[in-house]
């Protein structure tokens, strides 16, 4: 039997955690949604930035004759030029996949401060303001390459009630957000509620930009049990 077409999730520790147990998880939700239609492949690498990702890409990306990539999801964690290299890499382009670029979600400095101290950091590992710069870079790359962008940052900020022009939620310049505590368990990585937000935004994006690729529009691999081969 020929392999299923693939939906590859490629990114950092946030992507790696998309099968995290304890509640809804993006990977598990997507696998259920596309059951018998697409294979969900998680290629999240904790601690990797886009400079590492450029070098790692060719080590796991199949050739089109081995498996066809239908979707590819990428998160940004480093520089604009590396993100462009990933999205235009020959091993990616060969599949002509429907690319979906995710912005990073926001961070919560209040929660990060505690987890950073426990890891031995003397200064904050991330800030709300700096994360926003990477969000803007992801948006810019999406526009430059005409690639669909799922703006997780905005989705999370709206969940927390943020409005344009206000001090960023998650910054220590304003009180801690109880909503962020429900979305980010360590100030960076996603809780089950945060995973649900990601899944909902992704499915909404597929319906809007790739309506022919919603699960219900795709044929199943092999017929249902009433017509199963004997």
The portion of residues forming beta strands comes to 5-15%
**Rg result:** 18 Å
Put simply, the count of helices is 10
Mean residue pLDDT: 91
Q: Helicity, in percent? A: 40-55%
Report the end-to-end length measured between terminal Cα atoms: 15 Å
For the biggest β-sheet, the strand order reads 2-1-3-4-5
Tally of strands: 5
Task: Let me know the largest β-sheet.
Answer: 5 strands, parallel
What features would you highlight for this structure?
five-stranded parallel sheet, globular, 230 residues
Can I get a quick summary?
The protein is α/β, with parallel strands linked by helices.
Describe the 3D structure.
The protein is an alpha/beta fold and 230 residues long. Helix content is 41%, strand content 13%. The chain has 10 helices and 5 strands. It has helices at residues 13-16, 26-33, 50-60, 80-87, 90-93, 109-118, 128-145, 152-159, 178-183, 192-209; strands at residues 5-11, 38-44, 69-75, 98-102, 148-150. It has a 5-stranded parallel sheet, sandwiched between helices. Helix 3 runs parallel beside helix 4 (80-87). The longest helix is centred in the middle third of the chain and has 18 residues, at 128-145. The chain is globular. The mean pLDDT is 91.
Topology:
Blueprint: E1 5-11, H1 13-16, H2 26-33, E2 38-44, H3 50-60, E3 69-75, H4 80-87, H5 90-93, E4 98-102, H6 109-118, H7 128-145, E5 148-150, H8 152-159, H9 178-183, H10 192-209
Parallel strand pairs: 1-2, 1-3, 3-4, 4-5
Helix pairs in contact: 2-10, 3-4
């Amino acid at each position: 039997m020929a392999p299923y077409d693939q939906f590859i999730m490629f990114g950092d520790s946030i992507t790696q955690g998309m099968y995290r147990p304890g509640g809804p998880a993006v990977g598990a939700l997507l696998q259920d949604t596309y059951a018998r239609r697409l294979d969900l492949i998680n290629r999240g690498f904790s601690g990797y930035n886009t400079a590492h990702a450029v070098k790692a890409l060719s080590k796991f990306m199949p050739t089109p004759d081995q498996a066809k990539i239908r979707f590819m999801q990428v998160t940004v964690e480093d520089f604009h030029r590396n993100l462009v290299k990933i999205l235009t890499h020959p091993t990616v382009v060969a599949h002509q996949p429907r690319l979906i670029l995710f912005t990073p979600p926001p961070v919560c400095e209040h929660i990060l401060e505690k987890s950073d101290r426990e890891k031995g950091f003397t200064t904050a590992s991330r800030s709300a303001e700096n994360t926003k710069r990477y969000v803007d870079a992801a948006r810019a790359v999406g526009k430059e390459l005409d690639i669909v962008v799922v703006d997780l940052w905005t989705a999370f900020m709206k969940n927390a009630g943020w409005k344009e022009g206000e001090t960023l939620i998650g910054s220590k310049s304003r009180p801690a957000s109880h909503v962020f505590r429900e979305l980010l368990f360590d100030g960076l990585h996603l809780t089950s509620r945060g995973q649900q937000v990601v899944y909902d935004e992704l499915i909404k994006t597929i319906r809007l930009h790739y309506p022919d690729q919603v699960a219900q529009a795709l044929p199943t691999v092999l017929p249902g049990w009433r017509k199963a081969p004997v």
